[in-house]
Design a protein that fits this description.
With 106 residues, this protein is an all-alpha fold. The protein has helices at 6-20, 28-41, 45-56, 74-86, 92-105. The longest helix is centred in the N-terminal third of the chain and has 15 residues, at 6-20.
């Protein structure tokens, strides 16, 4: 994952956080997964603060365009989205959002 640029890392985490918010609540397990990703990605302090903010208020929907995910990273983004919805049990709204995301990035 560290092969991603700083902007791509933040794009990944914005999508992950948006999936955490799909059911309108971010659980402790979802926060834990996001924090683990933040650590693995080696984000700067400023980027960590932004991710923390996304865990309190979801990223703006108009800033999330799946078609802007680089082709080379689409599998990684899908895997991260799947991980965050699975971490606390999959809900129907999350499956719908994941299906739409998969359609848009394929």
């Amino acid at each position: 994952m560290k092969r991603l640029s700083s902007a791509e890392r933040m794009r990944l985490l914005s999508f992950v956080c948006s999936f955490a918010w799909t059911d309108l609540a971010v659980t402790a397990k979802e926060k834990g997964l996001v924090k683990k990703l933040v650590h693995e990605l080696g984000l700067s302090d400023a980027d960590r603060k932004q991710v923390d903010a996304w865990l309190k208020v979801p990223p703006a929907a108009d800033a999330l365009d799946p078609t802007e995910v680089p082709l080379a990273h689409r599998h990684l983004f899908l895997d991260a989205a799947k991980a965050v919805i699975r971490v606390d049990g999959v809900k129907p709204a999350e499956l719908d959002a994941l299906a739409l995301f998969e359609d848009l990035v394929r």
